[in-house]
Write a structure and sequence with these properties.
The protein is an alpha/beta fold. The protein has eight helices and 13 strands. A hairpin with an 8-residue loop joins strand 8 and strand 9. The protein is globular, with a radius of gyration of 17 Å. The protein starts with 15 loop residues before the first strand and ends with a helix.
Length: 254
Amino acid sequence: MNDKPSEGTFLREGERLDDLQRDGLKLIQNPSWFCFGMDAVLLTAFVRVKKGDRCLDLGCGNGVIPLLLSGRTQGDSFTGLEIQSDIAEMAGRSVAYNGVGDRVRIVEGDIREAVSLFGASVFDVVTSNPPYLTKSHGLVNPTDHKAIARHELKCTLEELIDSATRLLKPGGHFFMVHRPFRLAEIICRMTEHKLEPKRMRLVYPYVDKEPNMVLIEGVRGGNARLAVEPPLIVYEREHVYTEEVRALYESTDI
């Protein structure tokens, strides 16, 4: 890892530099736009990347997933695709600040046009932490950064899955975090596009609460067999993580 340059060289007004606690990596964020949450961290821990894999994150936002995966795996390359020009520019500055441009790059572009940008069947791994809500779910300002991050304004779930399938090599792996209330739709869309669901894990805020996240893996052209992993419980009690989540944050593997 290269020595880090001065923070002031890379930060703009309203931005901050957050420590990712992995290989000295840091991430530029603007709290008035949208900051990454636990869903991105849990997805990164759920993803499996082999040595030499080419990886793409669809709707990468501030670039947290490509950066974290570059630090915890031996993948060959990590690309983030982001449609919002100012967010993509900020993510690019994080890549430059960390000196990892030889393995990580940020591309501005539309998920629906990703195959035109990169070509078909070129990635071993595709990841996504997409907007969870449709346009009809309480949308207030369709041009706001937070609204775009939370609502399917730029790309629907089906369009995301269609692009992911076409971008993956045969046998390539797709990893996504989403909301359980859309799980039936997720599985239907994946199977329709020959992206066979192979592995799933539900995330619960507390042991006695309903799950609020689902982690799912699919394989392009895979056989029909879905493994459901044990539930992941986030909190023992308020503000106190379970042992598994503490280990996840403290482990050298994340």
